[in-house]
Write a structure and sequence with these properties.
heterodimer, A: mainly alpha, B: 244 residues, 6-stranded mixed sheet, 4-stranded antiparallel sheet, 35% helix, globular
Chain lengths: 318, 244
């Protein structure tokens, strides 16, 4: 286990119990004065904390793999069109008034799967990066347009507000059901991305050299579609759109690794988990009329981060 | 132990190229711009699917080999090598171990040998962005050496190097050939090819225009015909210069 992995793991193990105490109602672990403290912890905050870890790990790991695959430090899992595809699935379910508790996340997973399949078919077997990126961007904008269409056709104001709120991304009112829905695909996706690490390392030297090192571009492309699709699809299915994690986290972690993409995937997953866990706990305790939405909070954090990054790159180019 | 192209045709770029490379030799590919030098090198490295003919390694078609098996045998250095992430020299060399899936100890030993062979021991932990042009070229070659290939295919490895580094790198290739490795280099500098290669392959418009000992393959008549330049060789064997 490398040092960043170990440090992040310890931080996560320490942060989880602490985050459970924070909220609109603070819980003192030694003198639990609140009547339903055990219920609040076990049924509300623990699953919510674990879900933050699952979703954050998926987004962080997928971001690291994406940046390695596209060989671009500004790449984000959202670029693939998979997150917008998942969002479209969920929004359709909401607009159609799906009532089953599983309908929304499952529709989101179906949307992610559809986007993945389309991406694979459009990008084709050659596995060229430029075509792949463009196909992803096209899918993202198509899914975005269709989502807007569904919103504009929303049958009633209630559905409309439900959709808009859901799109903002949050972990509010999530429970164990969402944890069990999101954890298996996220873990599977992370495993796929981790296995693809050697191929991503080879891509550091460009596509031709990677192929000369035995990397098969079509296989690597499918591994990326599958891995990013499972992690990001599962994340959007249970938490809505939570942006910038996949962009920010690999950046923060990279300097503590040897900078190979494969060395970045696990620490980024842990750091993503930590970021989302802390951010969600902060959302709970910031005193606003209603709880700050996690997706909004991360975008407020992420956009300036992105700007600083761009300015630093600009200085590097000058 | 050969690497050979038989009737190799790649639409618009190579036309019925036949060449058999032998281990222990430094072969230079020369030719004007657009003659198909890089294409031939990439095809011999198994990176292009031919429209006709085959590339064979020890008699077996490259297309039939697994990608890992091919990667273990053939070390390829492209014309403009890129390094996306600012990894250090030892990590860069370690990427050459990817086809092997060997133990960490074996990988470390191969990387260490490659770094020592190229005088990079002191730079092992320096990020690629902080290397000079010559150091960078050596580090990129160390990546190829760490893969312990039986063939090294390098596309213009001397480009962007100063005279001293060019000479030093050619010495390395010579030393590798003397260890039984087959070395194939695309070279633009005809004097370098003539003085330092065992064999020269001249390409012109996708055809093999000449193939043989450097003195014959790069004879003044060949240069006149292929490059369209009236040139004369001056000097003595091993230190010839081309006057145009």
């Amino acid at each position: 286990m490398t040092r960043p992995t170990l440090v992040l793991l310890i931080a996560l193990v320490l942060a989880l119990p602490l985050s459970l105490l924070a909220g609109r109602v603070w819980i003192d672990p030694f003198h639990p004065a609140i009547p339903n403290a055990a219920v609040i912890l076990a049924e509300l905050r623990l699953p919510r904390g674990l879900l933050a870890i699952v979703v954050g790990a998926g987004l962080g790991g997928a971001g690291a793999a994406m940046q390695g695959y596209l060989r671009n430090p500004l790449a984000d899992p959202g670029l693939f069109g998979i997150a917008p595809g998942a969002a479209l699935g969920a929004v359709l379910a909401l607009a159609l008034g799906a009532t089953s508790t599983y309908a929304l996340p499952l529709a989101a997973l179906v949307g992610a799967g559809g986007a993945m399949a389309l991406l694979g078919v459009i990008a084709g077997r050659a596995g060229g990066l430029a075509l792949f990126t463009l196909a992803g961007m096209m899918l993202a904008s198509l899914a975005g347009a269709l989502t807007s269409l569904v919103i504009s056709l929303a049958p009633n104001p209630f559905a409309l507000s439900e959709i808009v709120t859901w799109l903002m991304g949050a972990l509010t009112d999530r429970g164990w059901r969402e944890v069990w829905l999101a954890a298996p695909p996220t873990l599977l996706g992370l495993a796929v991305l981790w296995r693809a690490g050697a191929g991503l390392d080879a891509l550091t030297l460009g596509e031709a050299t990677a192929r000369s090192l035995g990397v098969e571009p079509a296989r690597l492309q499918w591994a990326m579609i599958l891995g990013v699709g499972l992690t990001v699809g599962a994340g959007v299915a249970v938490a809505g759109i939570v942006g910038f994690v996949g962009l920010m986290v690999p950046h923060l972690v990279r300097r503590f690794t040897d900078r190979r993409p494969s060395a970045l995937i696990v620490p980024s997953a842990l750091a993503g988990a930590l970021l989302l866990l802390v951010a969600d706990a902060l959302c709970r305790i910031i005193p606003l009329a209603t709880e700050l939405r996690l997706g909004i909070a991360l975008s407020l954090l992420g956009a300036p981060f992105f700007l600083v990054l761009l300015l630093r790159m600009r200085r590097g180019l000058a | 132990m050969t690497l050979e192209a038989r009737g190799l045709t790649i639409a618009g770029r190579l036309d019925n190229v036949n060449v058999t490379l032998r281990p222990g030799e430094v072969t230079a590919i020369c030719g004007p711009n657009g003659a198909g030098k890089s294409t031939l090198l990439a095809a011999l490295a198994g990176l292009l699917s031919p429209n006709g003919g085959t590339v064979a390694l020890d008699g077996a078609s490259l297309g039939g080999l697994g990608s890992r098996q091919r990667a273990q045998a053939l070390g390829y250095l492209p014309q403009t090598p890129e390094v996306t992430w600012d990894i250090d020299v030892a990590t860069l060399a370690g990427l050459g171990r990817l086809p092997w899936r060997a133990s960490a100890a074996e990988d470390a030993a191969a990387v260490s040998t490659a770094l020592t062979a190229l005088d990079l021991d002191d730079l092992a932990h320096r990020p690629v962005s902080q290397l000079s042009g010559g150091e960078r070229a050596r580090a990129l070659l160390a990546r190829v050496l760490a893969g312990q290939p039986r063939w090294i295919l390098a596309d213009e490895p001397l480009a962007s190097l100063d005279l001293a580094h060019q000479a030093a790198l050619l010495d390395r290739f010579r030393a590798l050939a003397s260890q039984g490795i087959g070395v194939l280099l695309v070279l633009h500098d005809l004097a370098r090819a003539r003085n330092r290669a065992d064999r020269v392959l001249v390409l012109d418009k996708g055809h093999v225009a000449a193939d043989g000992a450097p003195g014959e393959a790069l004879a003044e008549e060949v240069i006149a015909e292929v490059w369209g330049v009236e040139a004369r060789w001056l000097g003595e064997p091993g230190a010839m210069a081309l006057a145009t």
